Structures are given as structure tokens and as C-alpha cells.
Amino acid sequence: MFTLTGTGIGRGIAIGRALIWDRSRSAIPNYRLQKNEINQEISRFSHAITLVRSELKHVQDNLPDSAPPETAAFIDVHLMMLDDPVLSEQPLASIAEHQINAEWSLQNHSNTLISFFDNISDPYLRTKREDVAQVVDRIMDILIRSDSDTHKLTDNIDQVLNDQIIVARDISPADAIRLRQRHLSAFVTSLGGPISHTAILARSLAIPAIVGLHDVTRSIRNNDYLIVDAASGALIVAPDDETLEFFKSARESQRLRQNELSKLRKVHPVTADGQPIKLLANIELPEDLDTFKDSGASGVGLYRTEFLFMNRENLPSEEEQYNAYCHVLQSVDDPVTIRTLDLGADKQVDGGRKEPKVSMTPALGLRAIRLCLSEPSLFKPQLRAIFRAAQFGQARIMIPMLSSLQELEQTLAIIREVCGELDRDGLSFNANLPIGGMIEVPAAAISADLFASKLDFLSIGTNDLIQYTLAIDRVDDTVNYLYDPLHPSVLRLIQNIIRAGEDAQIPVAMCGEMAGDPNFTRLLLGLGLREFSMEPSQLLEIRQQVLTSCTADLIELAGQILNSSDSHTSHRLLDTLNAGSGV
């Protein structure tokens, strides 16, 4: 018996036999074509694109009713990426111009696109590189088609997979839904982090998973007996009888608890001592609205608008944005917080990109509100669309990555200018939108009181706040071990933001991954947080934590965690806090 440790997703436990799914290749073919071979090679590449599109549409058209909307959204993204010129057109040009084979041409251009996403500083958007890699894998599988190519394993998993655990380098959304339909018990992957698409899929599909297990396909053999403990991130190989019985008992306890959680969907989130708590949902694509409606959320705490701008030739027009925002606002009866564009490169991301080798900005460069202020022609149409659409719902505007009051003053000046233009143009709009700021830069967190005095609400973006405070890249799994929401600097910044909101008498929400982690719910309640926004699939767990918490009993232990300088002590105190409040 031995144990491997990665990043666990969810709290589930799975027990079963390993099924190795290794799609890696020793090398990508690289050879020069004769002139009379070029047209055939172009046809071969075009045929591969057509086949991949057909495969994805087949999966999309046959999604079961039980499939979460996140899965359909990810497949939509893959289909859009197939239309990206960098993948679908530029390889054809390289084949013709440089007389290189289709596989090598695809590899070259996909590397360009992956580099683009690598240089986006937003940790969530940076995970889109996984989509590129997964789409390219599918195309490459069809191009290579050797007898030994392991993509054929996907054609041989049509048998029921009860009690089998997939061990893979990575898993795409389309493959994940196929595996789920075959009653997959769990999966473990070499790649991935806590906010990767693989992780999001695992949560949405309620599949226990462990990601970031480097080279796991080389450490496990087919039919090895495995235990996946998602809560701890432990993969136990060849467990002894005592360990096996312990985890079987724990798995049954979890099943019973999940049945109880499902009864809480419509229960209003109020703590045991009568404190009302707002539980909000994060959304990104129109498909997310179905999940939102089923989640019991009391509003949208974060509506990401970036995908209106990506995987397309031209920037979205004001009308296109207006229609998209109208659709969301008319579909949601509760407040919707619309975050303005949060991307990490110049205006040619992705809309309007004419040349793949554009200058990419670093993680701390021109992005989010900095980008918007430097490109009013990008920012003002979005603001106009939001103010116009706000007639049809309860819209709020949230400004990302504020770091100075000067940025805020510039932003408010542009907002006033936009409202004046709309009025002069004779267009109907709602000028009375609450304006909030996403506090995710340490400088803004330290000066939160200054921002709170000029804004209607604050939202804590913990993904960036933690990585910037601790100087780590959260998506880089080689430094995942440094990611610690309990670091005293992180907690002090969070408390400072909450207090600034209290003093200014404005609401403070949290919309980062920490908000949806039940391990931190009671700590955040003890620090004074009263609004949580998360992926819809996480709401039941957080609701249960809220209902069984007494905020008055949490304050003292939360303060001890806040003042602790030792990581081990902080985690021990957190366990005590959770255990003592009805967990």
C-alpha cells in the first residue's frame, strides 16, 4: 500500500480498479511535403477539423438531462475554438506556404494560442489554455491515427465503468460526460489545479477527483485497486483490509449526508442566531442560467463578460453586448453584478486579432480596468450596453482590479460621460446603477476604506488577492503548495476589506473560490462576511454551513486564527471552529 497526494476536488470517496487512459505521444511527426502533396495535406487537415466538430456536436446533441450546464458550456467553448483562425485557418496557410505536414503545422500554431492564454493574468481565464490543449489533442488524434494511438481507448469505454477509476493526463469536457454516462466512479489526472476546467467538471458532475498528480499514469498500473479521497487529495494504491473498510464506511456516511443536503435547496440561508446571509452565484455563459435557477441563489454575484470578446475575429458591437446583458437581466429576478471586461492583453484580445504573434502582457501588466481605461473605444460600448440593458433588471456594475483611487476617479468620469452621451443620443437607459469594485490587489485591500467611501459595494476576489499577496501563480501546480487562504497576511487583508465596508455601511461580498469552500465558511462568517458568491454547484454545501452556524460563537476563534502566525496552529484552530459549530 502507498499513497500519492494531489489536489482533491470535492469531498467524495471512490473505491475501484484503475483504468489507465494515456493519450500522450512520444513525438509529433515533422516532415517536409512535396509540392504535389500540399493539396492532399490541406484536405487531410480540413477533414480532421470536420470530424472533431462532428464528434463534439454529437456529444452536445446527446447530453443527458442530468448533465450540468457547465458541461454544455465547456463543449460550446471547444466548438468556438475550432473556429479560431489560429487553429482552423493558419495551419492551412503554413502547410501551403512552408510545405510542412499538418501535425507539425497544428502544433506550431496551437503553441501560439496556448502562449496567449498563459500570459493572461486572470487565473480563471488562464485555465482556458486547457481548452486549447484538449481541442488540439482531438485534432491530433485524428491526424495521427496510428494503431497504437490511445485515443481509441475512448471508443472502447462504452462498457459500463462501475467501480472503475480513470487515471489520465487530463480529461476534456466531452470525454468527462461520456465517462459519467458510463457510471465512472472517479478520476485522477496528472494536470490541473483547484480552478481548472477538470476541477470544475468534477464538482459539477459530483465525481470524486484528484488533479495535479504529476506523472500519475506512470505510477499506476491497469487494475490496481485504488481509493480516491477527494477531501484530502489522497490516492491510496493497493489498500490493506483495514484501510478499505474505513473508507467504505466513510463513503456510506457521505451518501447519507448528501441526501440530507438536497433537502435544503429552498431553505432561506439564515444562521442559527438569526443573521441573514446572501448566497449568490457566479455565471459566465447563457447556459449557466439554468444552473443558477436550480441553485437557490439570491442573485448573481459575478457575471463574467469576457467570453463575449474571445474566440472571434471582431470585437462585439454595442448591440450584441446589449442583447446579451438583456437576456441575463430578463432571466434573473434578483440583482445581477456585471463585471466589466477583465482580460490581460491589449485591444486585440481576441476580437480584432489580426496576427497571432501579438505582444502579450505579463500577469501584472495591462489588464482589466487598466486595459479599459487605456482603450475607451473598448470600454465605452460595454458601459453603454450595460446602462441600456439595466432597464430590464436589477443590474450592478463591478470594476475589476482597482489599485488606485485615480483609476476609480477615471472610471467614474467615463461612466458619467457615457450616461451623458446616451442622454444626448435619446436612448433609454437606467442611470442609477450601483457601482462597485472588485478588491483583488493588495494595494486596494490595504486602502479599502478609501475605495469604500466612493463605491456602493465591494467584492473580494480571493483568487487574485491570494496569488498577488503570496507572489504565487495559483494555476501553476508546481507552486500550489504555497497557496494558503489561512496565511495571516491574506486573512488580515480580507478582514480589512470587510471592516471598511462596515464602516462605510456598504455591502461586502466575496466571489473568489474561497467563498465556495465549506472549510472556510464559518471562518468568514466569524470575520463578518455576509455575502458569498460561488459556482452554483457549491451552494448546497455553503447553505448547510450557514444554517448550522451561530455567528456569535465564531468571532473568538476566528480572531485567534486571524492572529495566529503559525500555519499548523491556524489549520488546527480552523478544525476546532468547524467541529464546534455543528459540522
Describe the protein in words.
By secondary structure, this protein is of the alpha/beta class. It has two domains: 2-251, Glucose Oxidase, domain 1, CATH 3.50.30; 270-579, Phosphoenolpyruvate-binding domains (TIM Barrel). Helix content is 46%, strand content 13%. The protein contains 24 helices and 16 strands. It has helices spanning 38-61, 69-82, 85-88, 90-98, 102-118, 123-126, 129-144, 173-181, 197-205, 216-219, 241-261, 288-295, 318-331, 368-374, 376-389, 405-424, 442-446, 448-452, 462-470, 488-504, 521-526, 539-547, 551-563, 567-579; strands spanning 2-5, 7-9, 13-21, 164-168, 186-189, 209-211, 225-229, 234-237, 278-283, 300-304, 336-339, 395-399, 435-439, 457-460, 508-510, 531-534. The strands form two sheets. Strands 1-8-7-3-4-5-6-2 form an eight-stranded mixed β-sheet. Strands 9-10-11-12-13-14-15-16 form an eight-stranded parallel beta barrel, surrounded by four helices. α21 links the parallel β15 (508-510) and β16. α8 (173-181) runs parallel beside α9.
